[in-house]
Amino acid sequence: MSIFQKIVEKRIKKAKEEGVFDDLPGQGEPLSIEDDSHIPEDLRLVHKILKNADCLPPELQLRKEIRQMEDMLENIPDEKEKYRQIKRINYKIMQLNMMGKGSPLLEETQVYYRKLVDKMAQK
User: Fold this and answer.
1) How many domains does the chain have?
2) Cα 92 from chain centre
3) DSSP characters over 11-40
4) Would you say residue 76 lies in a domain?
5) Residue 1 above 80 pLDDT?
């Protein structure tokens, strides 16, 4: 054991005896280990840092904004305002499609004005 390891072990033991580690958040609960096997090994640390900072990659941020805008669409009573919102949604979808980074399984489809207006009218 190196001198550095001995110093670290001594300080940990002292802190333990002083109760520094008592009442830590999550104490007594199982650790949640995330499966990051789908992330390339050289990007895992960066991914974890961004996730902990609550940052999303641009394509996921756009998807999130599109979902939020679609949810807001249901509560818009004015037909002209719905049309404007649909145009904004279509623009965001176009931006997402132009990124070309999405999976073909997750492709977005364009939101068409008449189809949505008819759907909202049925509710």
Assistant:
1) 1
2) 17
3) HHHHHHHHTTTTT-TTTTSPP-----TTS-
4) yes
5) no
pTM for this one? Answer: 0.46
Digit-coded pLDDT (tens) for 98-108: 887 554 434 44
| Listed residue (24, 101, 21) closest to 63, CA to CA | 101
- Nearest C-alpha neighbor of 79 from the set 121, 37, 41: 121
The answer to the question of residue 43 being in a domain is no
Residue 63: how many other CB atoms lie within 10 Å: 18
pLDDT digits (tens, 9 = 90+) for 60-105: 788 888 989 988 888 888 889 988 998 999 998 888 888 875 544 3
Range of the domain at 107: 58-122
In-domain check, residue 107: yes
Tokens standing for 118?
């008819």
Residue 92 and residue 75: Cα distance in Å, rounded?
19
Residue 32 falls inside a structural domain = no
Rounded Cα–Cα distance for residues 106 and 33 (Å):
26
